[in-house]
Amino acid sequence: MIKDNNSFVSETRENMKGGKGSVTLQHYFSKAEFGGQHIRVCAKLIIPPGASIGLHDHTGEDEVYIVLKGNGRVTDDGVVRDIHVGDAVLTGLGKSHGVECIGEETLEIMALVVTY
């Protein structure tokens, strides 16, 4: 299956997971489009300057972030670190994370949530 960039379904969430501002999720593929039952999310997270996704845990699943654009600050299992284009974060096994856009440019992250 191949999708054009303009065919993705987008949704905007206010105060996502208790975070600040609004975050847009641009879904690459829906859960139903995968043959397996273990992919829950496959999307680009678009986080404007000053916005964030609040701290939340991942019990029974893993989430991968890959930074595509911009600069952010992630809290991953209690460790706070700045993230930049090309960086990757893996959170799971009941651990928690949150992310915020700290630059003047929108932060874009590819997110993949896999359940087990």
**Number of E strands:** 10
Strand content range: over 45%
N-to-C terminal Cα separation, in Å?
24 Å
What is the CATH T-level topology? Jelly Rolls
Query: CATH class, please?
Result: Mainly Beta
- Spans where pLDDT lies below 50 across 5 or more residues: none
Q: What is the domain total for the residues? A: 1
Shape label: globular
- The proportion of residues forming helix, as a percent range, comes to under 10%
Strand arrangement across the biggest beta sheet? 1-2-3-10-5-8
Rounded average pLDDT: 95
Query: What Rg is obtained from the alpha carbons, in whole angstroms?
Result: 14 Å
Give the structural class.
Answer: mainly beta
Main sheet makeup: 6 strands, antiparallel
What is the secondary structure topology, with strand pairs?
Blueprint: E1 9-14, E2 22-27, E3 39-47, E4 52-57, E5 61-69, E6 72-76, E7 79-83, E8 88-92, E9 96-101, E10 107-115
Keywords: Isomerase, Metal-binding
Pfam family, one: Cupin_2
GO molecular function: isomerase activity; metal ion binding
Describe this structure in words.
The protein has 116 residues and is an all-beta fold. The chain has a single domain (5-115), classed as Jelly Rolls (Sandwich), CATH 2.60.120.10. Helix content is 0%, strand content 57%. The chain has no helices and 10 strands. The strands form 2 sheets. A 6-stranded antiparallel β-sheet has the order 1-2-3-10-5-8, with no helix packed on it. The two termini are 24 Å apart. The model has no long low-confidence stretch (mean pLDDT 95).
